[in-house]
Amino acid sequence: MGESTRVLECSGLHKSYGERKAVDGVGFHIDLGETYGLLGPNGAGKTTTISMICGLLTRDAGEVTVAGEPIDVGLIDAKQWIGYVPQDLAIYPDLTAEENLMFFGRLYGLSGKALKSRSEAVLEVTGLIDRRDDKTEEYSGGMKRRLNIGIGLLHEPRLLMLDEPTVGVDPQSRNAILDSVERLSGEGMAVLYTTHYMEEAERLCNRVGIIDQGKIMAEGTRRQLVELIGERDRVRVVAE
Question: Average pLDDT in the 36-45 region?
Answer without folding.
Answer: 95
